Amino acid sequence: MANVTRDADAEAYSSFATSPLIKIVVGDAQIEFHVHKDVLVTETVFFQRILSNSTPGAETKEVKLPDVDPAIFKYFVNWVYTRAAKTKRNTYFDQGYDNIHPENIDGILETWRFAEDMGMPGWQHYLVRALGSRMPASCVGH
Questions:
Q1: Cα-Cα-Cα-Cα dihedral of 74, 78, 65, 51, to 10°?
Q2: Which residue of 13, 32, 42, 141 has the lowest C-beta tally within 10 Å?
């Protein structure tokens, strides 16, 4: 069954190399990211809506997200291309915490809210599971 998933993923991304790059300007600092249109449209309901060919202005190659934290968007880009678990400040999942510290919980929740805004329930599910797996048993009722 894993091969079916890999085949489907490979097919979904087979055109990304020839897909146009979309410039996404993020945050108050206006950090620029360049992401393949096919990846954005395949992964998110948000970008499906604004970049679909039937939407007025869909031919645009630039999207502005002034209210998004660039660190979270960087994690988003990493996620849609690699499924690697790195987040804002690169600490939430990488350092093998026995306990989740408040600053990490806030960052994970910010990331979860961004995933919700993007229409990415799979990423939201991953974030919840990753958070739960790192909390002490006394916090999750084990």
A1: 160
A2: 141
Which tokens go with 4? 């079916």
- Is residue 120 over pLDDT 90? yes
pTM, rounded to two decimals:
0.72
**In sequence order, which residues have a C-beta less than 8 Å from that of residue 121 and are 6 or more positions away?**
115
Burial classification of residue 26, based on how many CB atoms lie within 10 Å of its CB (0-12 exposed, 13-18 middle, 19 or more buried): buried
Q: Cβ neighbours of residue 99 under 8 Å, at least 6 residues apart?
A: 134, 135, 136
What would the pLDDT profile of 7-19 be if each residue is shown by its tens digit? 555 665 566 678 8
What are the chain's domains? Answer: 2-140 (3.30.710.10)
